[in-house]
Amino acid sequence: MSVTVKAAALFRSHAASLVDFSLDNLKINAASLRKVGEAITKGTIGVEIGDTGPMLSAAYSRKKLVLRKESETDYPEGQAAIVHEGVHAWADLSDHRSGLSEEAAAYLTEVVYLRVLNRRISGHPIYDAANELASSRHLFDRRGVHLKSEECEDLRQAIHSQPAYQDLQ
After folding, report:
1. What is the pTM of this model?
2. 22-47: b or e for each residue (b if 16 or more CB lie within 10 Å)?
3. Are the C-beta atoms of residues 153 and 51 closer than 8 Å to each other?
4. Residue 132: how many CA atoms within 13 Å on its side-chain side?
5. What average pLDDT score do residues 97-114 get?
6. Whole-angstrom Cα distance, residue 103 to residue 146?
7. What are the phi and psi torsion angles at 42 (to 5°)?
């Protein structure tokens, strides 16, 4: 199975179907993630193996999802990183690019996805803040939770404190 087929399938997975929240005007749920998978299948969003930098297993830019290696689709943390980047793809497809709030939504999606798979990343300020917010706002067990940027300030600050994100507003 090709890496493109594997990546597209992640957006139709059971774990992806249980992500359901919005942050300001960016709605992330089964339908929006399925649309990302469809865009990958149709070739609207390309998938390739390439350089994602030293810290990332996946990256998204200009209708292209880049994976550090093909095996990123084969383990939970790699899959969650791909779905994280899918949030950026959805924001791009739906014209809801929103900088720091978009990045917060991507991290929240990633931690919810991982929780469905009985996994958790901790010990990093961004993941700790995302897990705390997802838990306190019941993103792990409720559907359709609406968040506003102001409610995400700890997560937004954790993201902004990292050098890669300091230019986001």
Report:
1. 0.96
2. bbbebbbbbebbbbbbebbbeeebeb
3. no
4. 15
5. 95
6. 16
7. -80, -15
